[in-house]
Amino acid sequence: MKRPITSRAPSPRRSLGVGGFTLLELLVAVTITLILAGLMLRVTGSLLNFWRRSQADHTQAITAKQVFDYLEQDFQSACFRRDNSRWLAADIIDSPAGLANHGWLISPGVMKPANGGSLSPLPPQDANGSRSPASARFGLSGVWLRFVATNVESGGSLPAIVAYQLARRPVTGDPGPTNPAPVRYSLYRSAISNSETFGNGYDVTAANYASTSNSPSSAGSSLYRTARNVMNPSHANLLASNVVDFGCWLYVRNPDSTLQRIYPSAAGDISHQAVGSSLALDSRYPAVVDVMLRILTEEGASLLDAIESSRVPSRPPDYSTDAAWWWAVVEANSRVFVRRIEIKGTAL
Amino acid sequence: MKHRPPSGFALVITLVLLALLVLAVFALSALTKVSSETSLTGVYQAQARQNALLALNVGLGELQRHAGDDTRITGMAGITGIAPLASNSTRHWCGVWRSDGSFVAWLASGAQPVAAALQSGVPAFELVSSGSVGAASSNSEHVIAGKIPLPIAETPGAPGRVATVGNYAYVVCDEGIKTPAHSPPPVPVVPPVIYSASTGNAQGRLRDALVTYAASTPRVLSYEQLALLPTPAAALTPSTLQDNFHHTTLTSRFVSGGQLTAGMFNVNTTSAIGLRNLLQTYNTAPGAGTPITSAVVSARGTTMQNGLAAYTAAGKRANGPFISTAPFATYLATLFPIAGSPNFTQIMTVIGPMLTVRSDTFRIRAYGDALNPTDSAKVESAVYCEAIVQRTPEPMPDFGRRFVITYFRWLGPDDI
């Protein structure tokens, strides 16, 4: 008699419900999990990178818009008279010594290249034979721009001297070598009070608007609309952080309505001081302005701070000079913005 | 029966990773939302500014079109018979007439073709209000303009639906009918002066400040900046300048003999204060005979304010402007008869060279706003600006002489 065929009896462990994976099952599961995790990590990483870049782009764009909106309002309402005062001045200060009393922190090590290392206000023509302020470099200081405008926030929109300039400073406190605060390049906008403007006159280059100290007034101080803020802006005058270059091109209108650039007039032109009564191109009051801003990402600003404060040990061998290194880092971590603004008023 | 326990390890890992992914996507979308809302706010602000500049340019264009020619006459709407009353908010509109006295246009958005009033259905909007002249009162009226909608033919998401995305308004004020606070030389007679019977009222305070700080006035760039006289202690309060807003300007210039001349006065006004200033200027001019007494200056100013519009003569229609200074002289004859002293001949001999019937300096106030395209009742951003414009000797083909902006400023709502 044949023995009935019966199924194999389950193992005691499985029948008890405590059976584990076989080695093969485990290996397959781990492999699949790793592949999935890798894929997800990659996707998540890409997303986070995209997010960070979007955030940086957004921050830069918002910063540029804020700065341009101020500049536009100020330039549109700029005013002058036909007299011998300098109603507008745009100067590039390209030596550290020249920035004394501007509230700059001048460090002995790596910093924005001076003495020609960042100076190309009129870049060479491109392949199409045209030039753009977007590819210009405005020296160590950027353009120190000041003019008379009526600014709406002054209460009555009365004439006031407005000054724009870059400064390299610790984010708080005085610009001294012992200040441990992070250092940033920032753009400042100082609008001098209406009464001080009226009292001191409209010559933006006058000694009345100079500073005799390198210490800016603090952000909490009420001294942020004084005449000295034209040269040495208060911390309260901060307009935008992480701006490493700022400049402008100035134009006059020809009788046929075409624009003629009057600043920079040549590659080495670092100054334009507009005299109200002047008809000479090198001192004429402009009708149109192109403004250029170069804004770093926060990541780039931190990296630049690390380089400038020697927390990054040494210059990579790819760069022959500190200036080349500095600009390579800046160009890799910044965006350039340009806006054209028309000055509405003219003088009789 | 084969029984295998569920294996949840891979599921848990997958769920965790999916959760991370969802979190990242959520955060990214939140950032995108914030940035798009920020951008939208910026777009509204930019749109409102553009609409305000559009209004300014429309106003400037209309001014150039109607008042560019040398033969045109300008004046305030009061000369058409609008009495000085707080509620008469078109009294200070600027009108343009042809050399024969026929009417051309009111330089305000939404104005009717003839009457100094807004077209039916056009909402009124104050462009000279408390911030400029204080509370509305007689001779210190607010000034309105029509708010003109800016429609678009297509609404995003709703093709074919017309929507209003913004509004604009502008008004042109004649500065030549006002007494200039500063008249740089050369002037035809003497710089016009401000009359006041007392030192305590707004005209008196302004007059005294201008006399005391005459050395500082050449540095003043705008009428509102007179509040800074003297430095450092201000003598003129904002209310003083508000009370003088319709009657005093910083500097008005006139195209005369191919060049710009200050120190003149457009007689097409019904401002008692401005007309008193004119009579007082006679008193200060070299060659003036018997002075006009203070009481007479005051009384005749009021008489002229109330009687100029209705006066008719050759060269002056009822409720129309003087088309030359000759009928103004005949009107003066009714107030200062030849038998009196001074008489109108003596007065005109002295101040005649400074009189004119058109202005070349104007103030344009403009407004622009941006509306929510889906809810046109919701104003997302509103902007004001102002320009002082000057007619220059430079010819402009087909449009007389060219107007240029000599002073531009953005204004806050409190400045209006």
Description:
The complex is a heterodimer of chains A (348) and B (416). Chain A is built from five helices and twelve strands. The longest helix of chain A is centred in the first third of the chain and has 54 residues, at 23-76. The termini of chain A are far apart. Chain A is α+β, with helices and mostly antiparallel strands and 348 residues long. In chain A, 25% of the residues lie in helices and 24% in strands. The model of chain A has no long low-confidence stretch (mean pLDDT 91). In chain A, the strands form three sheets. Chain A has a six-stranded antiparallel β-sheet, with helices on both faces. Chain B has helices at residues 9-67, 130-133, 202-212, 238-244, 272-284, 294-307, 325-335, 344-351; strands at 73-76, 94-97, 103-106, 124-128, 143-146, 148-152, 163-174, 179-180, 248-249, 253-256, 259-262, 265-266, 355-356, 361-372, 375-395, 401-411. Chain B has a five-stranded antiparallel β-sheet with strand order 6-7-14-15-16. Chain B has a three-stranded antiparallel β-sheet with strand order 1-2-3, with no helix packed on it. The longest helix of chain B has 59 residues, at 9-67. Chain B is an alpha+beta fold and 416 residues long. Chain B is built from eight helices and 16 strands. The radius of gyration of chain B is 29 Å and the shape is elongated. At the A-B interface, helix 2 and helix 3 of A face helix 1, strand 15 and strand 16 of B.
Task: Provide a short characterization of the protein structure.
The complex is a heterodimer of chains A (348) and B (416). Chain A is an alpha+beta fold and 348 residues long.
Any chance you could write out the topology, listing elements then pairs?
The complex is a heterodimer of chains A (348) and B (416).
Chain A: H1 12-15, H2 23-76, E1 86-92, E2 119-120, E3 137-138, E4 143-150, E5 159-170, E6 183-191, H3 194-200, E7 238-241, E8 243-253, E9 259-263, E10 271-275, E11 288-296, H4 298-308, H5 322-332, E12 334-342
Chain B: H1 9-67, E1 73-76, E2 94-97, E3 103-106, E4 124-128, H2 130-133, E5 143-146, E6 148-152, E7 163-174, E8 179-180, H3 202-212, H4 238-244, E9 248-249, E10 253-256, E11 259-262, E12 265-266, H5 272-284, H6 294-307, H7 325-335, H8 344-351, E13 355-356, E14 361-372, E15 375-395, E16 401-411
Parallel strand pairs in B: 8-9, 12-13
Antiparallel strand pairs in B: 1-2, 2-3, 4-5, 6-7, 7-14, 10-11, 14-15, 15-16
